[in-house]
Amino acid sequence: MGRKIILGLLGLGLWLALLTGCGRSEPEATLKVLAGSELQDMAPVLRDLESTTGVRLAMEYTGSLDGAERLAGGEKVDLAWFSHGKYLTLLAGSRIAAQEKIMLSPVVLGVRESRARAWGWIDNPNLTWRDIAAKAASGELRYAMTDPASSNTGFTALIGLASAFSGRGEALQPEAIDAVALKSFFTGQALTAGSSGWLAERYVQEQDRLDGMINYESVLLGLNAGGQLREKLTLVYPREGIVTADYPLMLLNPAQRTAYQTVVDYLRQPDIQRRIMEQTLRRPAVAAVPPDGRFPDRLLVEAPFPGNRDVIDRLLFAYLDEQRRPGHALFVLDVSGSMKGEGIEQLKTALLNLAGADQSLSGRFARFRGRERITFLPFSSNVLPAQNFQVGDTATEGSDMRAIRQAVTALQVGGKTALFSALQRAYEIGGQAQVTEPNRYYSIVLMSDGQSNQGLSEAEFLQWHRNLPASTQNIRVFPVLFAEADDASMKRLAEATGGRVFDGRSESLSQVFKAIRGYQ
Amino acid sequence: MRRWLGPLLGILLLGGIGVGIYFSAQEQNQVTQQQLLERRQVLARGVIGSEKEDFFRDAKVIEALRQRGLTVTVEKAGSRQIANLPTLEQYDFAFPAGLPGAEKIRRERRARSAYTPFFTPMVVASWRPIAEILERNGLARQADRYYFLNMKKLVDLMNAGKRWNDLDHNEAYAVGKSILISSTDVRKSNSAAMYLALFSFIVNGDAVVQSEEQICRIYPAFRDIFLRQGFTEYSSEAPFEDYQVMGMGKSPLVIIYESQFLQLAAQGRLRSEMVLLYPEPTIYTKHVLIAFTEAGQRLGEALETDPALRRLAVEYGFRNPDIVYFREFASQHQVPIADTLVNVVEPPTYEIIEMMIASIEASLDRNLSDPLAHCGQRNL
Q1: Is the pLDDT of residue A53 over 90?
Q2: Which of A307, A308, A422, B303 supports an S-S bond with B230, CB 3.0-4.6 Å?
Q3: Chain B residues close to A306, C-beta within 8 Å
Q4: Cα distance from B324 to chain A (closest Cα, Å)?
């Protein structure tokens, strides 16, 4: 009888537990968020946000310019969360119903300690961006910086630099852009990328041939604490000022205002601000939590951010067409029989978009740029003749873009896949071009839908590649995975050359080729 | 053992239930009082300037309103944005900052009545080293622990394009930034519009701007103090937050409401190097509540007349007829404030302010045409 009562009580307990709900299984609200990819490190905080408040943030990560463009185009999301909201506000301000800063990180330059010491840059309050530009122009400072048209750190750095070089100490006006100073600064850009995270990874791999990197203070402090660097990076905060990313959480769907406020209140409370600072090395956005001892305690002069979108677009196009080191982009293109139909059509569309067909804002930034050299190297059973273009005019209906579009349209499919022979040829072309034009930024895009079954083998190619002169060997390969491509082999290629694999299966080739432009 | 365990548990369980019933019956009496109050509650939904958000989210304010039968929910927006909200009349009330915005709403919407429960002067938040540089250059004078800022001299420096490192004794702030006052986005927010009103008074030779001809005379000076700042934010709390978080490197001088500074002091978050500069002359921001419904009217009346709510408003740094408590509150939190401001100017009319703002708006958006394009460029 006793057992029965005990069982009965247990049953009662279980029933009561079910009634009151002992665990939260479903969130009370789910908000769709378009977010910058560097916010992936907030995942642990967001998990606790959900278990404490019942609000789940369904994050979709994307590049900042891409995100800004999607939002300006009216995409339906509840919130947007990027490293800064100023460009988005200028682009689509009327869509933003509310915004609150969540954390801060200035974009600064980290320089190898030995260099910083030799140049007298450590704790030097008089250091200016012009001093830094002089070292870049003389070839002593080779740094990594992302592409301003694809990634926020490069974008922010460009704004800060242009504002510093204008010498005006106030918002940049078009007539105050000092193109000469910018150009000399960018001669030192030895590595570009479409993402700040990838840039930092490559910096670690290539730290011996680079002298510094422009990135978020949080990323640079993280690298210094992480133990992967043979030499620490000295963070420099030049006198004319820097630009700080302030990560505003933006409400786009006013119907979700209550849930939005819950999220903001949670993230901005002192305990969570402290936790964010400890885990991500970003500075708190509330005055109640002062930055801890890991952050340099000094006057951070903030450069003004332009209030006018035209100025910003002008800066970006001038960087791409006039100021950056001009690129030479080699496209190794599979036109074997298996590409027939869908494959070749996608490829043609992707290339036509880069040659002026894509009129969107990001499409215009991704377009082949003024001064750039383009080489198309199609291959099937044999390596087909290379087609070279030198871009002068970037206008859609200009003769340069037209010539490229004609060549794309004329691509024909048929035959086998001599992939490594074609890649070898691309390196030969690049190597020859380097002799006359050593200052260009070289890169190879390798697009194939299958395994190599003709000509050189992978092993033969890699053997050959190892014996190239260092400058040619360092040309990066960006393979695009498509259809039956050999993923493992493509990954090995990217690794061996310091490149990056792009997935053309989950995204269209157009999107992939656009993204790769940030790495060229 | 098992034989007595069962009955014992049964007794305990019954006892527990009995105790539970007893206590919940006790609570019942209190609950009914509360329930009566709840049943009388009227919901008032409103849209407000961000500077009053903390006030409405304060538990004491919520309780004081509840005692008067009001449950208030607020959404915040820039004060000029409020005036332009297409759905504004669906709210019970609008509570922007500043007369010009309120005036626009009163003219264009079917408002039942308007209340002015509190006001606050425009001030400049700054830092001790900056104030000292200004003082040594004859731009400010210290009084108690705050300063008076000579607006005429400062405006002359700004218009001449001077920078901080052009001043004498600038060691503490020898940076190349232009001397400018940071404000909000004048297209969206009242505090920037008040700054524009004050600035226009000074460059107009100490007279309220009253005609298009007079605007032409101060064009484009009134525009450039905003354009030269670059990107500005939509609400008054953002630049003040930047002031607190990012410090002197971002914001040497920020135009804010005095109430914001007092509120910070009342929360004990004022740091010793933060100082208040009173512009001479200055201008008041009146906080006007425009009621669209009876619930809105009840809120307006409560804020104007309820002694508890009036004191709470003071605790958020606003000034109202209860000047005795205002003084008491400021001294209690050791915030030195100038309690009698004699040199106060009036804003221009709504049309004049709007014309100047429309001109600034046009210079930031190539799709708009500048209503003052015919004025031509002049130097002051």
Answers
A1: yes
A2: A307
A3: 230-231
A4: 30
CB contact under 8 A, A2 and B175: no
Chain A with chain B: Cβ pairs closer than 8 A: 98
> Which chain B residues in 331-350 lie under 8 Å from chain A, judged by CB atoms?
none
Are A170 and B178 in contact (CB < 8 Å)?
A: yes
Q: Which of A226, A244, A262 is the last residue in one of the domains?
A: A244
Residues A403 and A504 reside in one and the same domain: yes
CATH superfamily to which B39-119+285-332 belongs: Periplasmic binding protein-like II (3.40.190.10)
Given a contact cutoff of 8 angstroms between Cβ atoms, the answer to whether A217 and A235 are in contact is yes
Residue B119 has pLDDT above 70, yes or no: yes
Range of the domain at A269: 25-103+246-284
Are A287 and B5 in contact (CB < 8 Å)? no
Of B9, B227, B230, the CB nearest to A5: B9
Report whether pLDDT(B65) > 50: yes
Indicate yes or no: CB of A240 within 8 angstroms of CB of B176: yes
For an interface test with B, give the residue of A1, A3, A5, A256 to mutate (most B CBs within 10 A): A5
> Mapping DSSP to helix (H, G, I), strand (E, B) and coil, where does residue B370 land?
coil
By the CB < 8 Å criterion, does B63 face chain A?
A: no
CB spacing of B229 vs A171 below 8 angstroms:
yes
Give the H or E element holding residue B201: helix B190-203
Q: Do B247 and A257 touch (CB under 8 A)?
A: no
Which of A6, A169, A244 is opposite residue B163, by nearest beta carbon?
A169
Q: Do A170 and B75 touch (CB under 8 A)?
A: no
pLDDT of residue A32: 98
Which residues, at least 6 apart from B364, have a Cβ–Cβ distance to it below 8 Å?
Answer: A307, A308, B187, B227
- Residue written as token pair 């082999």: A489
pLDDT at A334 over 80: yes
Answer for the pair B228, B186: CB distance below 8 angstroms, yes or no: no
Task: State the pLDDT confidence band at B374, using cuts at 50, 70 and 90.
Answer: confident
DSSP string computed for A89-142: HHHHGGG--EEEE-EEEEEEEEEEHHHHHHTT-TT-TT--HHHHHHHHHTTS--
**Which chain B residues are within 8 Å of A240, Cβ to Cβ?**
176
- Whether residue A167 has pLDDT greater than 50: yes
Does A12 score more than 60 pLDDT? no
Q: Is B75 on the interface with A (CB under 8 A)?
A: yes
Q: What is the pTM of this model?
A: 0.87
Q: What is the dihedral of CA A347, A348, A354, A356, to 10 degrees?
A: -160
Which residue numbers of A have CB closer than 8 Å to B's CBs?
Answer: 1-6, 9, 86, 89-90, 98, 101, 104, 167-172, 239-241, 244, 257, 283-288, 299-302, 304-308, 310
Mean of pLDDT values over B332-351: 89
pLDDT score for B221 = 95
- Domain boundary at A191, A225, A244, which? A244
Q: Return phi, psi of residue B297, to 5°.
A: -65, -40
Q: What average pLDDT score do residues A147-170 get? A: 93
In the numeric block, which tokens belong to residue B76?
């915040």
Asked whether residue A180 carries a pLDDT value surpassing 80, the answer given is yes
What topology does CATH give the domain B121-283+341-375? D-Maltodextrin-Binding Protein; domain 2 (3.40.190)
Residues A258 and A385 in one domain: no
Which pLDDT band holds residue B23 (cuts at 50, 70, 90)? Answer: low
CB contact under 8 A, A170 and B180: yes
What confidence tens digit (pLDDT) does each residue in B32-57 have? 666 766 767 899 999 998 889 889 99
For chain A, the domain total comes to 3
Helix (H, G, I), strand (E, B) or coil at A332: strand
ipTM of the shown complex: 0.86
List chain B residues with CB under 8 Å of A300. 246-247, 249-250
Distances in Å between the Cα of B143 and the Cα atoms of A194, A378, B135, B273, B277 are 55, 79, 11, 16, 10
The alpha carbon dihedral of A150, A153, A157, A159 has a sign of positive
